[in-house]
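The aim of this short unit is practical: by the end, you should be able to scan a pair of folded records and say something sensible about each. We start with the first protein, listed as its amino acid sequence and then its structure tokens.
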Amino acid sequence: MKKIFAILIFAVTASAVNAQQFIAEAQPALQHGLHFKSLPTTWDEGIPLGNGMVGALVWQKGNNLRMSLDRADLWDMRPMKGIHRKEFSYKWVEEQVKKKEYGIVQEYFDSPYDNESAPSKIPGGSLEFEIQNWGAVSSVNLSLKDALCEVKWENGTFLKTFVHANQPVGWFRFENLKNEFVPHLIAPRYQGEVKVSGDPVGGDDLARLGYKQGKVTEQGNTITYEQEGWGGFKYQISLIWRKIDNSTIEGVWSVTSQYPKKKINPIAGSIVKKTILRGYNTDLSSHISWWKKFWNQSAIQIPDSLLEKQWYLEQYKFGSAARRGAPPISLQAVWTADNGRLPPWKGDYHHDLNTQLSYWPSYSGNHMEEAMGYIDHLEENKANYKRYTKMYFGTDGLAVPGVTTLDGTEMGGWIQYSLSPTVSAWLGHHYYLHWRYSMDRKFLKQKAYPWIKDVAKHLEQITVKDEKGFRKLPISSSPEINDNDISAWFNQNTNYDLALMNFTFKAATELAEELGLKQEAIHWKQILNEFPDYALTANSEMMFSPTLPYKESHRHFSHLMAIHPLSLVKWEDGEKAQSVIKNTISLLEKVGPDYWCGYSYSWLGNIKARAKDGVGAAKDLEIFAKAFCLKNSFHVNGDQTKSGYSKFQYRPFTLEGNFAFAAGLQEMLLQSYAGFIEVMPAVPAAWKDISFDKLRAEGAFLVSAKKKDGLVDEVKIIAEQGGKTKLKMPFKTWFANSKYQAEAIQVSDGFIELNFKKGGWIVLKNGYE
């Protein structure tokens, strides 16, 4: 054993130390929250509160305090008009592309999305409180630790409000009231003049939905609003309040829904009556307990206060938007537009980037339970996806529409992407990640492999052999290259489609082998070997397709899927792969960011972290945080600073850029995709003091680390499931504390092999020699 690797390994008895003692309690600090001297005056800058199912935005409209209320399953579910015609098939579209008669395809399958108001996510309603006699607001604060919003007025009135972490209710408490308390429940404008029509980005007027205006009923200290939507769907909002003393009032609201032929849900009116009896303080206590557990899942500390704060805000929004038992994160989650219009892009489920990026941070961020809400949704809609697969593609197995309603039904619109044959493959990557980060064999057997196997069946049947014997799609695309033009279809595999197909058959092979299904593994591997190489320029730059290099600025880095997130072309693969990654990034920056969105910078931060470029990753994440987020941290696509970071300067709000940002910062601190754990692989040299607690690595290892004065001082690893892993050595010499026969062995220059029993842990300290 080499002298420079002096190893001292000693066991610590079970009574001496437990795994949690060396993990500090992780809670966001005061500076990580939102702090203003006045209330926001637009809905999309409101203070966000939520629990995955219901949400609220706190802001000021005119002279009133306004709380915009939402529920994730409020949907107009009418079928998209006209798309389910006899021509609805991939084969028919292929024929029109080959005949260069694409106008009819756009008319049948693209135009309805733009021109029809529904299907669409719809808003709930709003509460308003008359505050014109209270004087000016003196402070507005959102505590991330408690998920509690507090507002103070100059006359001494004080508001505390929260959406309960795991109950479908929101609470408010006004203290030191000096004026009359006057609440109102404001219904959305489902009747009236239509001023905006056919605008999927800005949103159609709600009146286009054609609903009969719902009824608001006031009785004593209770207000209830009932609204019927399309097809017998109904929802109810109820508000109740009570006087605690002469200057204190507390109240609670709820939003509930009911679909025909579905299980009968409790109505909002009954929920608030039961909730008010528990009292504000009782519910606040259980609410805070949930958030304490959430925050103890992971934590970071870095010397860049902007990026650190943004990370905590993203974690907070993720905790507010993701929950098992609730629909997964849509474009705006539980914060639907409150402006008399439908939300941007109908608030739907876009699976050509948006839902996928939204769940990127859940894995290494150690929020596996919340991530399961995404998987649960896909599982629940599987029968609907298989109906679509057979109807549109004529294949067995599993395809998923790229743009869907709440129950997974296709909506059309730019069908190169909304009806892409490889959407289910990208969704399958999340199944794969969940398995790799959890090592839950039941999940592997019952969910991960069945999903990926079904996707592989579909792709095997739909692909054909070209003249060289390579497998290809009859027509291929790359989101959202050439937009909705016929030129968006390619007769050779795009790198996007190719990467997803390669991933599917590679994962199917790996998982089948893991389950001992040898013949299935052999079959999948054989098909994997039938795909061609990725399209590269002479300068080793990733292309969109063999006929289209990256030569114009574009927001969607779909041609880079093999690099990130799929990890098929890895920095660790050696000089050739590194050349492809470096040259491709260089070309992106040379062409420039004219038509990038905020999520482009977040995604590029992830890619640069994979390239071990800490300075570059930090720079792109900083641009995202400074230029593409409103003051409440919502990502709004365009450059709000007009600083040249993008020619897009609009502000439709979507969430995927926010969550991709969090994933990017986590990639800078911990990577495990290459078969080993690497701590702080992509941090700027100027970041001398860093720490993180309980970030999760593949293999179900929880990793904590500290860096002091520019040197990694300590690495702590807990093996949730046990097993072996490797750690890339972050220091020259080291010693270790271990428990449950965890051991560390120097296996080669630069790597330590770690072997754990289930629940075992180890602490590696820098030997400073």
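Turning to the second protein, read its sequence before its tokens, just as you did above.
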Amino acid sequence: MLKNYLLSAIRNISRNKLSSGISIFGLAIGISAAFLMFRYIQFELSFDNYHPRHERIYRLSSILSAGAKSEYLAPTAMSVAKQVQKLIDEIEVAARAVPMEAVVKLGSYQVNSKHKFYQADPEIFDILEVEWLAQENNNPLKKPNTVILTQSLADKFFEDVWYDDMLGRPLMLNRKIYSVGGVIKDIPQNSDLRFEALVSLNDSQYEWLDFQAYTYILLKKNTALSDLQLSLQNFDQHWFTPVLQEEWGTEESYVYHKAIAIADLHFTNDLIGDTEEKGNMSLIVVLSIIAIFLVTIAAINFINLFIAQSIKRNVEVGIRKVIGARKSQLVFQYLSESLLFTLISTVIAILLIQAVEPFWYASTNISLNINSLLYENIFLYLVMTLLLIGIFAGSYAAFFLASSDPVKALKNHFSNSSPKSFHKVLQLIQFSIATGMVLCTLILYQQLDFMLNKQLGYDEERLMVLSIPEVPEKSEVMSSFKQYLLDKNYAESVTLGAKPGNLYLKGTVIQEMDGNNIEVTVNAIYADADYLEVLGISLVEGNNFYRDACDCEHQYIINEALSKRLQWDRAVGESLSFDGEGEIIGVVKDFHYQSLHYAIEPLIIILNPEGGTHALVKLQGDKVGEIESAWQTFLPDIPISYSFLEQELAAQYRTEKHMIDLFIFFSILTIVISCMGLFGMSAMNAQLRTKAMGIHKVMGARRLQIFYLLSKDTLTNVGFAIVISLPLAGMIMFRWLSLFEYHVTFDWMQLFIAGSIVFLLAMFTSCYHSLHITQTNPVLSLKDE
């Protein structure tokens, strides 16, 4: 009997190629796209969960407060790891990983390596999980001047050499010979510390208060996080802060340490000097919603078309019931057909996923190979979803048809009593989602275009940004480098300071006003005397920094926002205490030193070239190669690290760019799937009403009237979907725009455009079959069975 049901299903597919193909391929496309998004979400949420003891692994961060300044740092002082392991009972193991700039020399050639080298304590392997391919002993990092290579870097450096034969090989790093002590498998992509090589940590290279170490700790079993935080507070108050105050000679300096679970690091975005690019939870939420929408739309298509296709077989149902078919047999037949459809969709979905795997991996580094695919829980969930869709579609059609009156079915009167309201509800949901996504895409695109093109109050063009390393006599080296670029005409101008969007200092300014203290939270940056000129920042009051100022003087330039908050009629000449007591010598016009997510906040620019984190170079033509050569002249052991300010500013909106790209792609996909379903439903509706339309034409109905009769129900339903969806989507996007201090204006034209796009697409989709009937000879229509 099952064989007969399958044969019947195959014949049904062959007789209804268009609607069957649309329902099967529409479901496969929706499921494939949803799988890709859920796979990405699963990857983002899995960071560092692969460590067997990840529930007990934490990383310490530092909150450094010195007078009015505060810094939120990802690294800790070099001394913290050993001291917390000694003084805090809850900690089983502590280890450090310190970023290392490395120039690698192999044989006769030298590589200015941009690979991720870290110096590390040998205890790092007691905390983080690695898989060894070769090693000299149980923990090679215990031996000084040892380097551990990852598999890909070992293959690059030594090519066809066996991993065991690499052990003991010399490798020159920064003009010092190291020995290869082991090779490990590459660190997984879902790791917050994706190093490519680990080097034995030499404490003598660092001061104990250098804040350069990423400190990882492993808690003892059954230790509560609250107990650890309490112990860290005691450690900070009674040991670290007193020693720090004594070292720095000030009682205004404090350090607080915070433990962050290793699995939470990927979504911790507020720390200075963190390791990898961080994730964004807003993007995860958006992707989840889109994935659910796609599955919903694909399921609605499938259910609508399957039920409509089943209703066309009402005469067959009547005959089967007359000759004695039981209700359970009819139910089983339709369920088997529906499940066969979903099985075919599943196979096509797997083929589609594998087809896009090269493009997917190139953009995300997330594997989709067939072996891992079959073991992914998310794939199991989607298969279960497919089965539920198939069971629901088959059950609804089967129970509805099996409950029908066989006499009416034999007379072919069944179509007039078909569940139109159910179809309309599903179609209403489908086009409501499509309309909402189109509106969201329009507003997202307008907002991103606004942010990328808004005038920021300074000149970002032709600005090359170089990271300044911490080296001995940094100020003298960078001053000489700056002068060299100017003398050689490699640069039009150069300044040492902070790049816009890269704030390292926060603090509080207290100003007495009418007997009351006004407390203002401020941001601060260090810069040299050329900072305003290079960036083209305008002064509205006072002067630029004095180049011949003595070291004892503190010169401050503030922005208009701070001047207004402190209620000064004229700020120039006023005293201010932030990085020491100093004088305000100028006020600059407000400029967007942060992204447009934030309002322009009070800012202090401090004359301190030594504290500059970047060199901003205004290029004189295409001189990038010459600047790279000059860097090697002054800093031969440190690879150059540079970018361009325009790219850096655009990167501030990477999340919005990702969201827009996703919305555009999946909005198109949503519309395509929705229109596929509408096309199939229109075809079936036109087929069912061919004879009726032939009668109308014989009675004198014009083509426009025939088109109206066939399309009015569908277009009315789409119109209702648009009316329902636009206000709801509009409110959501209005709330989203309110997250930006500066955003596009939300108006009714955006609603009109989104609604018009969806309605016109729906109209053109449903028109095809209606126009075909209007052009058909009514004699042929009346012969239709």
